Amino acid sequence: xxxxxxxxxxxxxxxxxxxxxxxxxRQFLDMKAKVKKxxxxxxxxxxxxxxxxxxxxxxxxxxxxxxxxDNADSMNDDVSSDDDGKEKKNLGIEIEGSxxxxxxxxxxxxxxxxFSEGSRAxxxxxxxxxxxxxxxxxxxxxxxxxxxxxxxxxxxxxTERKVKGESKKEKHLVREKGHVKPANYLDAHEKFLxxxxxxxxxxxxxxxxxxxxxxxxxxxxxxxDAKVIKKRRKEAFFSELGKKPVADTSTKVHxxxxxxxxxxxxxxNYMLTNSKLKDWDKIPARHQILSTTYINPVIYxxxxxxxxxxxxCKIFGNLxxxxxxxxxxxxxxxxxxxxxxxxx
Amino acid sequence: xxxxxxxxxxxxxxxxxxxxxxxxxxxxxRGKLPVSLRQLQMDLRKLMLPYxxxxxxxxxxxxxxxxxxxxxxxxxxxxxxxxxxxxxPYLRVARTPQGPTLTFKIHEYSLxxxxxxxxxxxxxxxxxxxxxxxxxxxxxxxxxxxxxxxTVMFQNIFPAIDINTVKLSSCQRIVLLNYNKDTKLIxxxxxxxxxxxxxxxxxxxxxxxxxxxxxxxxxQDVSDFVTKAGYGSESEGDxxxxxxxxxxxxxxxxxxxxxxxxxLQEIGPRMTxxxxxxEEGLCSGGIIFSEYGTASEKRQEKNQSNGDDQDDNxxxxxxxxxxx
Lengths: 344, 324
What we know:
The complex is a heterodimer of chains A (344) and B (324).
Chain A: H1 2-36, H2 40-71, H3 75-104, H4 115-131, H5 147-175, H6 188-214, H7 223-242, H8 283-286, E1 293-295, E2 298-306, E3 309-318, E4 333-335
Antiparallel strand pairs in A: 2-3, 3-4
Helix pairs in contact in A: 2-3, 3-4
Chain B: E1 25-29, H1 35-48, H2 64-74, E2 78-84, E3 89-95, E4 101-110, H3 112-118, E5 134-138, H4 145-157, E6 161-162, E7 173-180, E8 185-197, H5 202-210, H6 222-227, E9 243-245, E10 259-266, E11 270-279, E12 287-290, H7 295-310, H8 313-323
């Protein structure tokens, strides 16, 4: 049973194959039919095109020959040109003939020609190609081989690209003007700047340490401690006041500043000269800043009880860092600025 | 009829401790900027933090008046304007609303990104930009008026410090402006401040800082970890000038009343500026100072030179002698 089944199966499978093959054949036939059923109009058009193409070729050939005739000697060339002419005629006839044949035995499958026919056509075609006289260019009509043309075009493109690139580069330069990538090491100048900045920070931190050490261990929220803090701040404040600004002894001194108190509000002419930023040039005249380095305006505060109101008194000092030129390091230099003073 | 008096809101633009008016700033561009300058603008905004508009949106049609109108209610006191011409980029620093305006020519600049790229270990702690930077002005004390004005301007651009109440932990950054007398250029640098305890081996410091289990494989005893000195690269070049005693604890590492070394690391941006003009008003008004001389001055000079030419040669010789 099994065997039989197997056989059956086998047969069946074979049958299947056969059917498939048939199908394929049918398909092939269909295809053929389809191929055969090309629209005659289209076919004509194609043929016409083919002819045109050939004629073009002929023309070109003729022109090429004509040009060569001009150049070359008489005898040999004449013969060769004659030969060419003959062959051309032959070729033309042949093509026509083949076309005719195609038309005549319509049942012959397209794309297949008899061997003899094919070989003849090939021979003619080959001959014609070999006979073709080529210009001295040696490369012939192969465009990609025309080094001169290609080189010219490439050069042109190159110059174009160069011009474009240059203009782009120029634009980029203008855009990036002043943009500098820093070196990945510290040169002398950077180191100098770093030390200057460090000095400033150290100065400030020391000042903060000095000021805050005074109120260390005291809780400002406790009234007892607050009093102590106040007292200490007062002392510190007046000690700051007591220091004479360096400017007073310098060359540019106001008449009053020599005698009067060093802090501006304690002077007679205070507030008479408005020292807004508008009159910025008058401020330094009164308190000339001699040192070379300043940090943020640092505030020394002290609470004064004046009548009903409590108001803050502030000194805006500049922590001057020590520099080689001046020895006034650490001495606060005063600057008064009404905009910074408290209004009520 | 009783009208409830409107409670006066505590002004946000006043420091709640010192009661000072906090300077605030806008950083924006005038005209179209190339990419790198836009980045510089962003860096400057970060530098001006926290009292600046980090995400200030500007449009092409925004005029200076628009910014000025917004500046009033917002309490903005300073404008930093970047612009660009064929020759160079420019930075204008102005006080609002009345001026003055300082115009700087930016000779060279590097972005924060460039600076970070140039460093082996760029540093940017989380709360670096939460407090205003300190400002250090150096070399401006030569007595010239325009330099003084520059000093005042830059001092007021950042909030003042009350040394009685200031917390050292809020001093994280520093802006340095260094004036070079010879070249008349101002170096603008931005550093981050880091404090390190002095006299502690690098190993121990790292151990305390990093909170990581140290590698003890190569050691015979735990005590070696403490006693053994690290490799020779330990920078013992901490000069005395760069050490401070702290008033209070700063972080886990820096304890009060111990010596700490101040280390600065650049965070950028970096600029080389040249002061070329000072105007009285906000980008307008009379010119107080001009590097290249004002038009009227030039005219005068021209007239003088013409006059000199007409004079006799003897006069010129005399002048030369005088000048000598």
